[in-house]
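Hi all, long-time lurker, first post. I run a small reading group and we've been trying to get comfortable going from sequence to structure in the token notation. Rather than ask abstract questions, I figured I'd post a concrete chain and ask someone more experienced to write out its structure so we can walk through it together at our next meeting. Sequence below, copied exactly:
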Amino acid sequence: MQNAHLSALEAKHATLDRRISIESQRPLPDQMIIAQLKREKLRVKEEIAFT
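-- Answer (accepted) --
Happy to help. Here is the structure in token form:
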């Protein structure tokens, strides 16, 4: 059960990383969106660390 949860968190972390990368490569990246995605990515990373 915990392994599935960890896998889901790692997948979410990777997805957020891709979304940050895509947004950063836009001609006019939205810094608010990037900041929000980074905060969410950090929250997921912290949850992974405590799992």
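A couple of things your group might point at:
Residues 2-25 form the longest helix (24 residues).
The mean pLDDT is 96.
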